[in-house]
Amino acid sequence: MSSHPLLQLTLVRMREFVREPEAVFWAVFFPVLLTVGLGLAFRDRPDPVLKVAATPAVAATLRTEKGLDVRELTEDQARLALRNGDVALAAAGESGAVVFFYDDTNGEARTARSLADRAVQRAAGRKDPVAVEDRVTREPGSRYVDFLVPGLIGIGIMSNGVWGLGFSIVDSRRRKLIKRMVATPMSRVQYLGSYLIWRMVLLPVEVLIPLAFGSLAFGVPIRGSFISIAVVCMIGSFCFSAIGILVGSRARTIEAVSGIMNLAIMPQWIVSGVFFSSQRFPDFAQPIIKALPLTALIDALRAIQLRGAGLTDVWLELGIMAAWLLGAFGIGLKLFRWR
Predict the structure, then answer these.
(1) Which of 28, 131, 276, 296 is a plausible cystine mate for 320, CB 3.0–4.6 Å?
(2) Rounded mean pLDDT of 326-335?
(3) What is the pLDDT confidence band of residue 203, given thresholds at 50, 70 and 90?
(4) How far, CA to CA in Å, does 170 sit from each of 25, 179, 322?
């Protein structure tokens, strides 16, 4: 058994990975660094403060609103600060009125405008006819970092599967290594299957490290079973490994395969809900986005991790990834060339 082609090829994959420190960094530590950076940048703050610029006539009034950080400037300076993106809102007093300058497509600007208007109206004597009481609750699972961690696990699985296999196959073809392997007692299925087995060996490291770090450092909940998470990640890894095989099945140069891989994964980075909800895109695009494998993987992970869903609840997402797996591997196996 020790001389079996599949075992030896899998050991080759392992040695190639361990001997490349860059590969270890991108596969294991980069998702953790992304979690730290984005988790700190978008962490929940008790008092979110928005920066505004105001003329002296209204600056003192706006400072009564604790949600605003007010810079006192002339009107021209305030509008320049707004154009430069230094503030979300510019306010100026003109003939007993207050003029707000802001971009209505910017959510922070709209919030700043609402807070500034409240401060101005209350300073003018307005009283709320209905008493309002705020009771702030912060439930783990609804924060941005909770939304983020499953997305980072998903892009880690996708990137390592597509880049790890596609790049490695083309690099071996470019260096004529695959051509030499043809003379050995090895089949095409064994050669490509070794990549899939190696991905399964590496998968627990890719998933458990960011999952554990998010839970320990930021308190990200894990409400579903680890078995369900493992099954979803395994099918997702197989799916993107098959796509990596398809991407590298014909390309002969690093430049060619890099372009194909970017074409395959970059649109999914943007639309599949990694850093923000995919629901932001128009309704006509939603069926296409939902059919993408990364969307299915991330949606399934979020459902299990944050809502405690089971495998039966994410059967559609599993089916989408399985379809991509069978289709990509079958086509990749058919198109694969040794040189």
Answers:
(1) 296
(2) 88
(3) confident
(4) 21, 12, 25
> Quick one: three-class SS letters along 226-267?
HHHHHHHHHHHHHHHHHHHHHHCCCCCCHHHHHHHHHHHHHH
DSSP states along 83-146: HTTS-SEEEEEETTEEEEE--TT-HHHHHHHHHHHHHHHHHTT---SS---------TTSSHHH
User: So where are the chain's domains?
Assistant: 5-42+140-335, 50-123
Beta bridge partners of 71: 53
Residue 277 has pLDDT above 70, yes or no: yes
Amino acid occupying residue 252: R
Mean pLDDT for the chain overall? 82
Token reading at 182 = 């043809």
Instruction: Please identify which residue in the block is written with the tokens 């639309």.
Output: 271
- Choose between 98 and 173: higher pLDDT: 98
Rounded to a whole number, what is the distance in angstroms from the first to the last CA of the chain?
28
**CA–CA separation, 141 and 126 (whole Å):** 38
Do the Cβ atoms of 121 and 71 come closer than 8 Å? Answer: no
How far is residue 316's CA from residue 290's CA, in Å, rounded to a whole number? Answer: 10
Pairing assessment for the beta strands 89-94 and 97-101 based on DSSP bridges: antiparallel
CA 169-297-161 angle, to 5 degrees, is 10
CB 326 within 8 A of CB 293: no
Q: How far is CA 297 from CA 26, 68, 99, 261, 278, in A?
A: 20, 39, 47, 18, 13
Q: Please name every residue paired with 50 in a beta bridge, in sequence order, or none if there are none.
A: 68
CATH fold, domain 50-123, is: D-Maltodextrin-Binding Protein; domain 2 (3.40.190)
d(CA 134, CA 128): 14
